Amino acid sequence: MSSLDRECDVFCRALIGRPAPQPIRDSYRRAHEVSAVGAPDSAFDAWLAAFAGRGPRRTRLADSYAVLFARGGLLRRKLVFLLAILESYAETSRSVDTPRSRSAAEFFARAALSGVAFVLYASVAVVLFLGPRLALSRERPRA
Amino acid sequence: MNVVVVGSGASAVHFAQTALDRGLDVTMLDVGRAAPPAVRPEDSFEKLKSSLERPDEYLLGRRFEAVAPPGDAKEYYGFPPHKSYVFEGVNAFRHRSRGFAPLLSFAEGGLAETWTAGAFPFHDDEMVDFPWERGTLAPYYDRVAERIGITGVEDDLTRVVPFHRHLMEPLRLDEHSRALLERAGARRGDLLRDAGCLVGRSRVATLSRPYDGRPACTYTGRCLLGCPTGALYTPSMTLARCRTNPRFTYRSGLLVRRFIFDEARRVREVVAEELAGGGFVRVPVDVLVLAAGTLATSKIVLDSWQAATGASLRLGGLMDNRQVLVPFVNLSRLGRAHDPDTYQYHQVALALLDDDSRLTTHALVTTLKTAMIHPIVKSLPIDLAAAIRIFGDAHAALGLVNVNFPDRRRGDCFVTVEPVGGDADGAANTTLHVTYAPEAGEAPRRDAVLRRVRRALGLLGCFVPPGMSHVRPMGASVHYAGTIPMTMEAAPWTATPNGRCREFENLWLADGTTFPFLPAKNLTLTLMANATRIADRVAGGER
Fold first, then answer.
1. Were both Cys, which of A86, B132, B139, B291 would link to B510 (CB 3.0–4.6 Å)?
2. A71 vs B71: CB contact, 8 Å cut-off?
3. Can you tell me the distance from the alpha carbon of B292 to that of B276, in angstroms, rounded to the nearest whole number?
4. How far apart are CA B212 and CA B233, in angstroms?
């Protein structure tokens, strides 16, 4: 399995809780081959994406940081491209577009829990990533 | 009489069809990029995701160009790859803009090949600046409706969207639209009193039953990708009909650059560039009809004047509808599943009344079903995994209001051309410069209307998330108009009430170039009706 395939798998587990089927991995690889996803904006940007690719929990941690401080960065681009691919294939589209709540009350309760979890993840991420961000702030991304 | 029509969009094809019906010979000059064939027209949107070998390529593009990347942009939808041919440019048509983001089309059928089929006739009050009597356009709305098939009902909106003949029974409603309309019916008095708002069904040029050789809508949910069956009308259908007429000649692959006129200001011929070979052809004309869309038509006029006189003209009064996208959540529909096998475009419309009925704001309500979800999900201020779960619960509750604002002609909104060298068959190549500035006081007026929209949505049980409304750049609505307006009194660079450009004996302008005012409505149906009217006048020898 190539590094992009492994990364796709990790991100897929993070987003929809299951590994990426082969067509999804193929499409994810193609998106990178045609440079649709793009290059990292900075050394830290590259580091954040690599950190996220090591496991689904790290993905969530890194994305909680990125949605606030690196919205257009490499990690967000990879995840959004993957989401677009997931919703294009029948095998995975239901996983990104199925309701779990059965009422408005349940929706708000789940959304509130998600919000609390997000705040916790983001708080941990800000502290955790401060060092790498400072250390890499002057470096260019490696090719 | 040899009538030469430039363009193949909504205005051009209805002019041509009418002229042919009146016994005239018509030659149409067009770039004419053709649409790709429909892909598996029998499959629904959901079925395509399994029946296609590469659904990602179909939905996202070979180079994933249809993916909305994360960032600050708040456009909630884009054009699918299958429709990218509509916006494929032409190198020879150079343009630059300030305060405007124009969309241009050189496709067969023009920009309306991607329209949402909203077919809303202008009310007479909205045409008070037009130089004709009340009711002038009414028979032409009837005629166009008979040609293309329009569905709708008589309801509260009829007060501001006139009823016309040949309306078909409406399409089947999706559940969310049905819920909104039921709630609107129950809160009718409150909506009018508290928000000055009327709510009703959209009029759409999509068939609810088979008509004129076209099938009825089969509710495959593929509207946003391009209707695969022909139930949703696009101008290329009328072009195809014209091409069956022996008096019609269609010459594609040609970009009309300018016309040549004599000392008596009579147009003699048209100069067009052959895009395949790079050479030029000259086409003699008896009557020239420019219907290439306001920007392209204006450029032809400007280039013609520039080539003949050396002078750069400025055509003022460019108009476009400001649009604001307002996402909302219908609380009563949270946690439900959405049905993808439904009509995807707007089925509900709003009108925000104004004391000056010309300035009534119109809005279209689209309930989200099969639109790609990632543009919305990525914009939520939470990590993507959580955003996906929240969106899944909320999908069936989501909708988008597209609010249109009227526009008036102003001198600081104009088009001109600048010579940039090179040789276009004896004349310089030029760049079209488009300049637009919003009217002073637009922002507070707009915000006041948007507060009413939010109030109306609240009365319909809907919540508008703060900070997610998106003011689209000018040019995004593609309702361009007004650079050579129709007027009653003669004045430089105006058109007669019948659409003849006063500067030339035999030049007619059949598109939005001649509109003296732009109400807050989709103008495509009115373009078709006006072009039909002008063709009648030309055929009748009127000027």
1. B291
2. yes
3. 20
4. 12
Note the pLDDT of residue B67: 92
Residue with tokens 């969207």: B161
* Predicted TM-score of the model (pTM): 0.93
Calculate how close chain B gets to A2, using CA atoms only, in Å.
21
The torsion angles phi and psi of B474, rounded to 5 degrees, stand at: -60, 135
Tell me which of A10, A60, A88 to substitute to probe the interface with B (most B C-beta atoms closer than 10 Å).
A88
The C-alpha angle B343, B394, B196, rounded to 5 degrees, equals 70
- Overall average pLDDT of the B275-295 stretch: 95
Nearest chain B residue to A101 by CA: give it.
Answer: B335
pLDDT for residue B475: 95
Question: Would you say the C-alpha torsion B6, B11, B13, B14 has a positive or negative sign?
Answer: negative
| Angle at the Cα of B356 from the Cα atoms of B353 and B357, rounded to 5 degrees | 55
Q: What whole-number distance in Å separates Cα of residue B464 and Cα of residue B327?
A: 6
Query: How many CA atoms lie less than 13 Å away from B162 in the CB half-sphere?
Result: 20
Name the one residue in this structure whose structure tokens are 């594609």: B252
CB B388 within 8 Å of CB A60: no
Instruction: Please give the distance of CA B452 from its chain centroid, rounded to a whole number.
Output: 25
Can you give the pLDDT at residue A138? Answer: 67
Instruction: Please report which helix (H) or strand (E) contains residue B183, including its range.
Output: helix B175-186
What is the distance in angstroms between the Cα of B495 and the nearest Cα belonging to chain A? Answer: 48
Q: Which of B277, B339, B338, B289 is nearest to B24 (CA)?
A: B289
Of chain B residues 358-377, which have a CB less than 8 A from chain A?
372-374, 377
Alpha carbons A63 and A60: distance in angstroms, whole number: 5
**For residue B282, what are the contacts with CB-CB under 8 A and spacing of at least 6?**
B260, B269, B270, B271, B272, B425
What is d(CA B163, CA B140) in angstroms, rounded to the nearest whole number? 13
Where do the H-state alpha helices sit in A2-103? 3-16, 22-33, 43-52, 56-69, 74-86, 90-93
Q: Do residues B468 and B379 make contact, with C-beta atoms less than 8 angstroms apart?
A: yes
Per-residue confidence band for B425, with pLDDT thresholds at 50, 70 and 90:
confident
CB contact under 8 A, A103 and B335: yes
The length of chain A in residues reads 143
**Apex B319 CA angle, B317 and B325, nearest 5:** 160
Give the count of alpha carbons within 13 A of A112, CB side only.
6
- B117/B231 Cα distance (integer angstroms): 11
Q: Once rounded to an integer, what is the mean pLDDT over residues B112-133?
A: 95
DSSP letters of B274-291?
Answer: ETTT--EEEEE-SEEEE-
